[in-house]
Every structure is written in C-alpha cells, then in structure tokens.
Amino acid sequence: MRIAVVGAGFAGVSAAKVLRQSGFDVTVFERAPDVGGVWSRTRRYPGLTTQNDKGTYHLSDLPMPAHYPQWPSGEQVQRYLETYVEKFGLASAMRLSTEVVSAELVNDETGWLVTSRPTGAQEPLTVQRYDHLIVANGIFSDPLVPSFDGQAAFVAAGGRVLATGEFPDVEAARGQHVLVVGYGKSACDVAVPVSEVAAQTHVVARELLWKMPRKLGGALNYKYLLLTRMGEALFRYLHLKGFERFLHGPGNGLRQRMVTSVGSVATRQFNLRALGLVPNGSFEDIARSTVSLATEGFFERVTDGRIVVHRDQVITELLVDDGGRPAARLADGTVLPADLVICGTGFRQHVPFLDDAVHARLQDDAGNFMLYRQILPIGVPRLTFAGYNSSFFSPLSAEMAAVWTAAYLRGGITLPPEDRMRDEVRARLAWMTARTNGRHARGTNIIPFSMHNIDEVLDELGLNLGSLTRARQWLFPVDPGSYRRVTAQMIRRTADPVSAISDVSPIKMDKVRR
Question: Is pLDDT of 346 > 50?
C-alpha cells in the first residue's frame, strides 16, 4: 500500500516512522525546505520556545538531548526532528520544498491522485496515485490575520501587517513603533524581544488569558500540576471514571480550592492586580480554551513600561496620522503610532488541497471536523488525520494517533457501526462547544484532556500502558518514553498489511472482518 502524508511536523514525521515500521510505502510532502512544521526555520519567530519542558515534549523513542535547556528553543526543536528523521532513516521518504496542490479522491476503491509541485513554482506538476492519504498539515499552519479597515492607506504610508510566523528577524522592529495583537503564547513571546529594540511596544489584547508560571512560587515546576493525570482530572471530562467521580462529586470543594489556588499563586507571582492584568473569570476557564505558559520577562517588561498592554481592546482601524505616519485606532478611541503590526491572532483549520465536496463530507454544518478519535473522518474512505488532536502532549498524541492509523490499515481494529461513530463524534463536539464557548479550533483542540484522548486511542487497540505506570502518571509528569514499545506491540498484534484494503474501501472493512 502506498501512503501519502501531507506535512512534516511532529505529526507527519511520527506517522511516517510508525507506518514505515508497519510495512507501508510512505511519501511525505512538505512545502518548507526542512522538517519541523511550526518549528521550521521558515516559520520561527523571535523568542519561540516550547511550552512543555523537554522531558514531556518529545516522541516516545527519542528523548530531547540532555544538553538542551529545560524549555528548548524553536531552533532546537527543529534540530531534534532532523535527528529523528536521521535516526529512523526517514530522509528517503521526505519530499521537502514540495507543495501539494490538490488531492483528489478518484473513487472509494481506487484511492487518491495527489498533485504536487516545487514550492513557490507553477511548474512542473507531478501527479501520483496513492492508496491512502494522511492529512498532517497542522492546525497551526495557516495564520488568521485580521483584515483591518484602512489597511491599504496604512500600507501605502509604510506600515506593515504580519503574522508572528512571518516575523523571523527582530531587527525588523528596531526603532519602530510596534503593535502586537493578541495575548496568546506567540503574541507574548514576540513582544519580549521586540521590546528590547523597538521605540515602543504595545500589546492589544481582546481577551486576557491566564498565564501559567514555569515555576509556581519560584519553586514548583508547573509540570507537576498540569502535565499529570491529577492535573487533568481537575477539569470535568465528558465521561467520569474512577477517582474523577470523587473529584467532581464529594471532593468537588477540594478540587475547586486546588484550581483556585493555582490562579491565586499566578496572580501574586506576576503582580497581576497591580498591573491591572487579572483575567476575567477563574483559572478553571483554561478548560474552556487553553492555558498559556508565561513568556519569561513579559510581566517584568510590563512593570518597567517597555511593554504596554491594552486589555479588552481591539484595533478598529488602521490609518495615517496628521504627520503622514502609519497609526492604529483602538476601540476606546486611543490612537497609537504603528509602523509594524504583528498578529498572534490564531489560525484557520482547513485542508486547502481537498476540494469543497470532500470538505463538506469532513465537517458538520458549523465547520467542525467530524473525526472519530480525532483521526478517522466518517464517510470519507482512504483518509485519516494526524495531529488534529492538539494537546499538552502534542508529539505523543500525534504519535499514538499514527499507531491507531497503522493498526486500522493493517486490519487490526473492529470499528463500531458508522452511525454509532457519527453519534459519538456529534456528542463530543456538542460537549466541546458548550465547555469552550465554541473555542475548540473546529473540534481539533482537546486541551486539557490530553491523556484522556491517548487512553481512548490505545484502549481501542488494547495497547494502553499497565495500571501501575498510569497510576504513577497521576502524581508525576507523563514521560512519553513510557510509550516507546507501543508501536512494536501493535505490529505484533495485527495482521500483515492486508491486500483487501486495495480492493475494499476502509469504511467497508468492518463488515469484511465481521
């Protein structure tokens, strides 16, 4: 079976490794000149680091290098992925600097025609047939930059509007009046190095998010709170099991105090009340969106005035001031000089190389991806997704999704009936929408329930870790290395890649096995 993987970030690279080990012929298309996805040198912005420490942010069978700092830089993460490709002999599968123009489902039995070309060129076009397609283009690959009123005149006057990923060199901000739009990780990350060289740095935040200290009280690493099963269990999941029933039942008062105490510590540690930067709502609201690790130096620069935060504000228009210089007007009427506007305002979740007809089969009426286990589209054959389960443990989540896909293609999963899978996905999306007020990245953001998702994927395969290891994960940060034998176990337990897949659509395979 020939498999095409689109994207060479953590999801695409781990999918290639798992599927090649499972006996499949894999080709990975990547439009960038290097592997890495969001960590590619073409997309790294100044100040980019991981949110996880290096012990929890890696693939199962290759830890981050011991000499890396606790929170590796973007360059170091990309170098790690290059090492991974070299270690597992994946270079021959990579088609770097190659853009997928379209992927056409010929029919349920034949598979996909994938049309590609060199990135940035119109020709030559190459068309190849594949039996299966894996979408690993990433949910953070297409920046969503607002279209501001007055932008044309603003640009004509010399102003620039960029996404954070389009801002690779901090020197471009030297001596400039800079507005950073957003309050998530990328916006705050960029604001710190910019503030060291810019004439002025203003952050325009529509909504403040809770920021997690790397070390609470300067001592306790946050990984012992949020990167454990206990930390995950503090937030109410769709289905409660075991000790979670106590935490959200008789122990709910204790649970609420634990969650509130984290927010209180963060408020004191960052001096948020004095700065006027206490977010609305409670710290538990991270379960309705996401938590952002505080950028080192951000609040210190707010304190000394090098960064000014305009909370609960948006840019209503870009303009040219009376002196002919570019500027921006905020919702409260404030006009700020703005030579450079850097937007950390989120991403579009879509698959641009699939046509509208396939997209319509992938999504519900609200545009949410209908993916069973965050992997399998219901009603579209010969297609799976990788990395559409953004979590606190994104590399591990993507890798375990790849194991599920490999088992599925090897005939090792008996799926529920299609109508039951559809009902389950709809119920999950409804729950996600209710708890996040719709902010779940079209159904792809599973934070803070990372381990719940991994458990469901591995339980379906009968490959979850033993109870003692999982018990340890309640108190200690999850170590991706604990999952290093899962791929080999899956290969031993499943049949060889079956020729029946070439003749029968995957949606029909459950009927074949039964």
Answer: yes
The alpha carbons of the chain give a radius of gyration, in whole angstroms, of 23
CA distances to 138, 276, 410 from 108, in Å = 25, 57, 18
CB 328 within 8 A of CB 319: yes
Show the tokens assigned to 215.
């070390």
34 and 12 Cβ atoms separated by less than 8 Å: no
Q: What is the pLDDT of residue 289?
A: 57
Q: How many CB atoms lie within 10 A of CB 12?
A: 32
Establish whether the linkage from the previous residue to 337 is cis, with ω within 30° of 0: no
Rounded distance, CA 433 to CA 233, Å?
19
pLDDT for the residue numbered 499: 42
Largest Cα separation within the chain, whole Å, is 76
Residues in the chain: 514
Query: Residue type for 395, please?
Result: P
Q: Is 232 left (phi over 0), alpha (psi -120 to 50) or beta?
A: alpha
CA 498/CA 138 separation, integer angstroms: 29
Q: Enter the DSSP assignment of 344.
A: -
Dihedrals φ, ψ of 280, to 5°?
A: -70, 150
